[in-house]
Amino acid sequence: MTLSEVRAVVTGGVSGLGFAVARHIVQHGGKAVLFDINDAKAEAALAALGTGQSAYFNTDVSDEAQTAANMAKAREFMGGLNAAISCTTSLLSIKLS
Prior knowledge:
The protein is α/β, with parallel strands linked by helices. The protein has helices spanning about 15-25, 40-50, 65-80, and strands at about 5-10, 30-35, 55-60, 85.
């Protein structure tokens, strides 16, 4: 798989390592959905990434129901999902299919 084919959810995606990973994916033609709880930084992150290739969903990954609902939204936005990248301090356990 090339980076242009990546359709990823990135937890902790609005800053630090998560943002760097999302930016790398988007810069190479892939799509990234950012899961985070930092709404204040999300606007700047999306402005930097571009809204056509990225989206933000306020997501507390310790809330399984919220995470599952937002995974469905992420799949819809990206036309599928083939990567989940955790850059949070919480453990994320999801089923991709």
